[in-house]
Amino acid sequence: MSTIDANSTLKRLRNRYRLVVMNDDTYEEVVTFKLSRLSVYVVLSSIFVILVTLTVALIVWTPLKQYVPGYGSQSARKELQVLKYRTDSLEQSLHFKDQYLNNLKKIISGNVSANLDTTLLKVPKQEVSND
């Protein structure tokens, strides 16, 4: 079983390669780059770090941070809760008014199916004290 030699890995990273961009019609060299695997890795890593840094800076120091979930001002959060309570109470009152109007329509049209027998009502018995 072969072991990976750190020295050979470092040599492979430092081997130099040539990247040539040529004109397809005239075969003239337009640009030539001398690269190594290590230099490509360093350049790509640097670009990644710079992009991440710029993105974080953009979010932290601009109003874009308000769009990050869970991040917002306390006043906006309290205002949202008040609006939610108000909306819930309005929905509930609207439901009660609709129910009232539907019952009123039934009464006016004569479609009342009410049981008017009061003997069927279950009234709780009161305790009688012997004083």
Structural overview:
By secondary structure, the chain is mostly helical. 53% of the residues lie in helices and 11% in strands. It has a two-stranded antiparallel sheet. A hairpin with a 6-residue loop joins strand 1 (16-22) and strand 2 (29-36). The radius of gyration is 40 Å and the shape is elongated. It starts with 5 loop residues before the first helix and ends in a 22-residue tail after the last helix.
How is the topology of this model organized?
Elements: H1 6-14, E1 16-22, E2 29-36, H2 37-60, H3 74-109
Antiparallel strand pairs: 1-2
- Estimate what percentage of residues fall within beta strands: 5-15%
Enumerate the strands of the largest sheet in spatial order, edge to edge or round the barrel.
1-2
So how many helices? 3
Helical proportion, percent range: 40-55%
Molecular shape: elongated
C-alpha end-to-end distance: 104 Å
Taken in chain order, the helices and strands follow as: HEEHH
Low-confidence stretches: none
Mean pLDDT across every amino acid position? 87
Question: Total domains, how many?
Answer: 2
Question: What integer value in Å does the Rg equal?
Answer: 40 Å
Structural class: mainly alpha
What is the number of strand segments? 2
The biggest sheet amounts to:
2 strands, antiparallel
